[in-house]
Amino acid sequence: MNTKIHIVDCQGLLKIVQSDDIEGGCIRVRNYEDDGDSYSDEPVPVTIKETFLVITQGHFIRNYEDKSKLNARTMAGGGMREISRLAYSYSVVVMASLIDTRGQVWESDLIYSDAGIRPTQFDMYSYHVNEPVQEYTEWRLEWEVFEALNLTKILANYLTKADIRESKLEDLGL
Questions:
Q1: What total of structural domains would you count in the chain?
Q2: How far is it, in rounded angstroms, from Cα 35 to Cα 44?
Q3: Across the strands, what pairs with 91?
Q4: 43: cis peptide before it, omega within 30°?
Q5: d(CA 41, CA 38)
Q6: By residue range, what is the domain housing residue 89?
Q7: SS3 94
């Protein structure tokens, strides 16, 4: 999965947003009322400061000795009541989107990379379908890898300490 993300200036604060979140040069900012339950979303104009490309991949680790179509390996759990999760390999590349007119990419454009294995977020039955053909829904892994990224930490060199602090407060819901 290739996803374009931006660091934008939003009312004096730098925020990390996906390209899809920008509509007509604005992003939607949620404002909560005093009661804490009511809110309204209002469009706020932004200026794009930096652009990055995030490339994520995920593939189930297969047991090729098992000839069935659903032959992914499970990951060792933490206890008896642990639900079965499938094992998958993943890779992440975050690069500056500074591509010249010829479309060339340079090694120095690399901001962050990571690879490894991990268990799926949900139980093993959430990752396959039986109809019309029995197969895995492997495309979900790319989203799972993307959602697990801490983009604030990865792009910390492009943000001020105040912006990092504000992002952590937003993650906590404060």
A1: 1
A2: 23
A3: 57, 115
A4: no
A5: 10
A6: 2-172
A7: strand
CA 158 to centroid of chain Cα atoms: 18
pTM of the model: 0.82
| 66-74 CB contacts, 8 Å cutoff, 24+ apart | 69/134, 69/135, 70/128, 70/134, 70/135, 70/136, 72/124, 72/127, 72/136, 74/124
Residues 6+ apart with CB under 8 A from 33: 39, 40
Q: What's the pLDDT score for residue 4?
A: 92
**Which pair of structure tokens corresponds to residue 162?**
């105040």
* pLDDT for the residue numbered 174: 47
Single-letter code of the amino acid located at 127: Y
Please say whether the beta carbons of 165 and 172 come within 8 A. Answer: no
| pLDDT single digits (tens) 118-167 | 999 988 888 999 889 899 999 999 999 999 999 999 999 998 888 788 77
Question: How far is Cα 73 from Cα 85, in angstroms, rounded to an integer?
Answer: 9
Beta strands in 11-133 (DSSP E): 13-18, 26-32, 39-45, 47-60, 74-75, 85-96, 110-119, 128-129
Question: In this predicted model, what pLDDT tens digit does every residue of 70-120 receive, in sequence order?
Answer: 999 998 766 666 778 999 999 999 999 865 556 788 888 899 999 999 999
Q: Give residue 30's identity as a one-letter amino acid code.
A: R
Residue 10: both structure tokens together: 């939003």
